[in-house]
Amino acid sequence: MSQIAAIALLALRHVFRSRVVLVLAALLAAAAFLLPLGLRSDGTPEGLIRIHLVYVLGLASFLLTLATLWSGCAAIAQEADEKTLQLLLVKPVSRLRIWLGKWLALLLLNAGLLALVGAAAAATLHVQLRRGGFAPEALAAARQTTLAALETLRAPLPDVAADVRAEIERLRAADRLPDAPEAALLPSIRRTVLARRYAVAPGASRRWTFDLPAGPAAAGPLLVQFRCDSSVLGAADFDSVLDLQVGEWRATRSVRAMPGNPQTVVFPDVPAGAAQAAVEFRNRGTHGATLFFDPADGLVLRRPAGTFAGNYLRALAQLYLRLALFAAIGVALGTLFSMPVATFLTLVLILVLQLSGFISAAAQVDRATFVANVAPFGHGGHVHGDAAPPAPSQLARAAAAGLFYAYRATYLTLRPLLEDRTLDDLATGTWLPPRALARNAVQQGLLLPLLLGLLSAAVLRTREWALPTPS
After folding, report:
1. Start-to-end CA span in the chain (Å)
2. Which run of H or E residues covers position 208?
3. How, if at all, do strands 220-226 and 205-211 pair?
4. What is the pTM (predicted TM-score) of this model?
5. Is 124:33 a contact under the CB 8 Å cutoff?
6. 372-390 burial code (b ≥16 CB/10 A, e <16)
7. Using an 8 Å Cβ cutoff, are 224 and 299 in contact?
8. Maximum distance among all alpha carbons in the chain?
9. Cα–Cα distance between 170 and 259 in angstroms, integer?
10. 200-296: which CATH topology?
11. What does DSSP say about strands 205-211 and 249-257: parallel, antiparallel, or unpaired?
């Protein structure tokens, strides 16, 4: 362990001598103190909170990611180019310890920088909330809904398999079934059937039932959050009634809101001990509008599960684990390739991460649906008038299948990095469970870096390194 610490200290001295840390610290300070002044919020406490928690921490995380990847590549590749790594390799130190020392140096550097920017973002947010001139009621609502750690409960989706089958038969009987494989049509038809189930006509109502987690819980607030669209175009508001029932306890609230805007209704002092909660939404029929809810997230129930301070620390810890994995990737790339090649690969990785939403969406549909949607673009011809497009060729279908597997492989390989909603969850008051943080600590902070370290150690043992030129 002393050898690993000595190598880490030498690497840190090299970084501080290059003054890269000073430039990075200045950029992070600008992100923490100047970015909130340059961005205009929507005038609400929630908008100000989002600027600090998403944009400030997001920009800081991006800057640290770039610096970590570049520094990780330089930790091995640049030293190999400068012929200083060879002086270390001839010493009686195992190759894995050399790699771990370089990695530990980046971990220590990121820990200090992330702690500083996290403290600065929290301090500036606190000051601006106090000096923002917000009404006490607005600040109190923001602390309940945004500066919080809320567990989100979703009602289970109904079983619509029979309705989907009936819809397919109805379309087939009416000769309106598209000419495509049935497997490719099922997701679209299922979405259509679910949309009908979650439409509330004027004067009608719909009921959501939630299972409450077992275990001791104190009485406290429950929040009903919903967002719906209206069949009436324009900015017409709607009037509705929310009825919450928990065991024998019951409360009703009238809600007047705009379609498309998220709404939160707080029910304070809800008694504990019940196994289920039910929410009934009644559409009073304003403007004769039918209201449409998203089946998964249209209406959810939220309850406090912790404190915002604990949530904030867990979010910073999750960002740190991502940086630890990026540091391992950077040092591994610097071990496997020369500095120019390693730098190019880090840029490719950054580009892939920027397209994470598209890659995740493409990789999570089934292969038949992906091929059916993508293959027609490869027919290469122009369709005139109302003529039906030609059927995709076998080559086009094979290319679409190859593209699907490429997306799928990228998604499975980089899934810990692609599926990260830490800052979005933090800015919406969503509870970040400690169990998920512990799982990520094992995956991103231990297992994956260890695998990369073992691979790099094997390369360090087998790769031929040019010796320093004698003076």
Report:
1. 34
2. strand 205-211
3. unpaired
4. 0.83
5. yes
6. bebbbeeeeeeeeeeeeee
7. yes
8. 90
9. 32
10. Jelly Rolls (2.60.120)
11. unpaired
